[in-house]
Amino acid sequence: MQSRVKNRSSLAAALAAAMLAPAIASAAPATTLYGGGASLPTTAYVGSSWFTPSPALRLSSAGDAGSLFGQYTASTAATPIGFFTGTTTRPAVSYCQTGSGTGKKVLIGDPTVSASNACPDQGTSSVTGFGAPSGVQASFAGSDSPLSTSEFSAFLTNKSARVQPVQFPAIGAVIAVIYNNPAVKAASLPLSESKICRIFSGEINNWKQLGPYPSKPIKVVFRSDGSGTSFAFSNHLSKVCPTAEPIAVTGFKTNQTFSSAFPVAAPTGSIGAPQNGGVTTAVSTTDGAIGFADVADTSERIRLNPSISLKFASVVLKDGVNPATGQVYSRKNPLAHPATFPLSSVLTDKVIASSLDANGRPVLQDIVAPPRPGCVLLAAPDSYATAPLNANGDYASYPIVAVSYLIANAAGNGQNTKNLQALLAAPYGKGAAGTYSAGTTTIGAGKGYLYLTGKVPGPVKIAQCVKA
Length: 468
Description:
Elements (H helix, E strand, L loop, with lengths): L7 H10 L3 H5 L6 E6 L4 H5 L11 E4 L6 H7 L17 E6 L2 H9 L31 E4 L5 H10 L6 E15 L10 E3 H9 L17 E5 L4 H13 L30 E3 L1 H10 L4 E6 H10 L6 E2 L1 E3 L4 E2 L4 E2 L11 E4 L2 E3 L1 E3 L11 E3 L10 E3 L21 E9 L7 H9 L23 E6 L4 H7 L3
């Protein structure tokens, strides 16, 4: 029998505890909404100002113009987000880059972390909090890996008065293969899918295996923390590697902890680093390194420090000549991508099961009798694991992308409810009462993000799901 996300006793406990919600709702509105999690969407959420004078994890500000937080804080009764007019002055937003895994743990109420634990600066290997004042609850989390069965169940146990978590796709982003080798004189190193798979499995371990380059060991750099970037990159590898041509690689597993995604173990000499900034630093300071990172954060670091020893690889579907065109397969550069990303498959009330299928792919599981139905939206990982092919049998677009989510409490939000609803609605644009603009292109414009279109939640859905 398929395991159930929760049994009757846990549902009864959740509903009984929900009777405490009115007491929570009577609390005074916060001066700051505290959140944290994924580093991948940070530049879209806050803008580029967080990089200067030096990168910090805790982000308390109105947000740059064009950013998610900027759009949220600028919304008033005169310029609403959807029908969320709220007040003329919204609370500030603080966002701590903990990585997706820790961000979800804080919101869920995992005893190993706390919203009030310190949020240190970039490069810290152990981040266990959002930097909120003592006793203040987290209002939201950002994650590029969707909720799992165990995470949903843990929320019901730890935060029963808040009923359940809600989850909305917020923005897409491009994941790049990055490298450091001065011997590569071309603007971009072309890597076929087969070569990428063999590099991260350890089968290719020297630069001379990639082309006419001097012998040099390849140092694979990967995320050491729980990361949605790792989920997205391993989602791609587990999809394409078993059939990659001319040489396939089996055994990759989709996992937000990349050390668990390798077919057997991390290649000899690999380097684990926390947060996207830790990966880019490790690659840029290690001759011969190859890693993966999100384009937006990495591009901004290169812009601020043009001498950084780091480049983006382009991705080629296959080595050799495309028989349909008589030409080599086209290079797809992560810096050239569509502005929008249609969500072709958004599912409701499903989570990622604890076990993968035989090919290391995510298995989706129904949430049985959710306390608030229809409020966990999940973009099917298969739908963005790789890019579609064009009429010539070549990639139509760059194939490695992520979908980032905003996760919050369904209840217990008190007098912060309207402001939290407006924050969650901000990715979808401002509109007149009862309407919204799906796929706004103002958030992080031109910075490596993909603006979601299609089945995105509107203000009515958000208001149904997020209550006092």
